[in-house]
Design brief:
Blueprint: H1 10-68, H2 73-78, H3 81-94, H4 100-106, H5 109-125
């Protein structure tokens, strides 16, 4: 007899957040493209991609801390992710016609995914 995987474990929660993030990014990009044109859609997609990269780095950092107890040098360098992402976003937005507002909205994709995950955890914890 096998046991069911724990839906509230770190691995399943991280995978679920990744799937939710992808779904919110895809839906938001489609909506932005339809209602705001290609500049808005591309801006939201860029912001969502940066948000996804940020999530990937955070996941690697947390997984590394849990496995070893202290971060390696590479994990510490990831701590500069906001500086790296901010610099990349500045260069792209400075020399591109895409919408700054849409990029900022796309950056909130991870926050939206986390809210959905919190609701899932609250509902699932009641059972």
């Amino acid at each position: 007899m096998t046991t069911a995987p724990d839906r509230l474990s770190f691995a399943s929660t991280a995978a679920r957040i990744g799937r939710i993030l992808t779904a919110v990014a895809a839906l938001g990009t489609c909506v932005a493209w339809v209602f705001g044109g290609w500049k808005t859609g591309a801006g939201f997609l860029l912001g969502a991609a940066i948000s996804g990269l940020n999530y990937h780095w955070l996941h690697k950092l947390v997984a590394g801390l849990g496995a070893r107890g202290r971060p390696r040098f590479r994990s510490v360098v990831v701590g500069f992710r906001y500086l790296i992402l901010g610099g990349c976003a500045y260069v792209i937005l400075r020399f591109s016609p895409i919408s700054l507002t849409a990029v900022l909205a796309g950056l909130l994709v991870l926050t939206a995914a986390l809210f959905v995950e919190v609701i899932f955890e609250l509902v699932y914890a009641r059972k």
